[in-house]
Amino acid sequence: MEKFIVLAGSPNSGKTSTADKVIKKLLSCGYKDVKRYDLSVVLEKDGKEIVVIPYGDYRKTLEDFFERIDFEKYYAVVCCSHATRGKQVFEFFHSFIGELDLNKTQVIPIYKNLLCNHGKDDLENEKTADFIVSLL
């Protein structure tokens, strides 16, 4: 995996909405929906596969998914996480990132709390999704 993008934020900060927009934008860029895991999707274009996980509220759900997937076969993973230390999902991602080889995988955290709740949520989610797609 070359890129691990984490949308981190409090509940209702737009993490899932942004991840859903990333999926739609990648599909409009010619990516194909090649596989689904529960709520996650694998998209592929020109041999490059990207996993988008638009949920991140429950540690057990994420653990089960992460145990089933071979991250080495994917170009990038985009996922959502709570952003508060002490929360189980945050701790799960913190531990997972600690095990990554940072010479091989670029970790890109996006902190949604700074962007949300300004009365511009739709635009903010759209622009954040555009930014993520530009990274891919």
Explain what this protein looks like in three dimensions.
Helices cover 38% and strands 28% of the residues. The chain is an alpha/beta fold. The chain has a single domain, classed as Rossmann fold (3-Layer(aba) Sandwich), CATH 3.40.50.
Task: Describe this protein with a few key phrases.
about 140 residues; Rossmann fold; 6-stranded mixed β-sheet
Summarize the structure.
With 136 residues, this protein is α/β, with parallel strands linked by helices.
Task: Indicate the radius of gyration in whole angstroms.
Answer: 14 Å
Low-confidence stretches: none
The CATH topology assignment is Rossmann fold
Helix and strand element order: EHEEEHEHEH
Instruction: Supply the helix-strand structural class.
Output: alpha/beta
Just give the CATH class: Alpha Beta
Number of helices: 4
Give the strand content: 25-35%
Gross geometry:
globular
**Which strand order do you get reading across the main beta sheet?**
2-3-4-5-1-6
Taking the alpha carbons of the first and last residues, their distance comes to: 12 Å
User: How many strands appear in the DSSP assignment?
Assistant: 6
Mean pLDDT across every amino acid position = 89
Biggest pleated sheet: 6 strands, mixed
Q: How much helical structure, as a percent, in the residues? A: 25-40%
Q: At CATH's second level, what is the architecture?
A: 3-Layer(aba) Sandwich
Question: What number of structural domains do the residues give?
Answer: 1
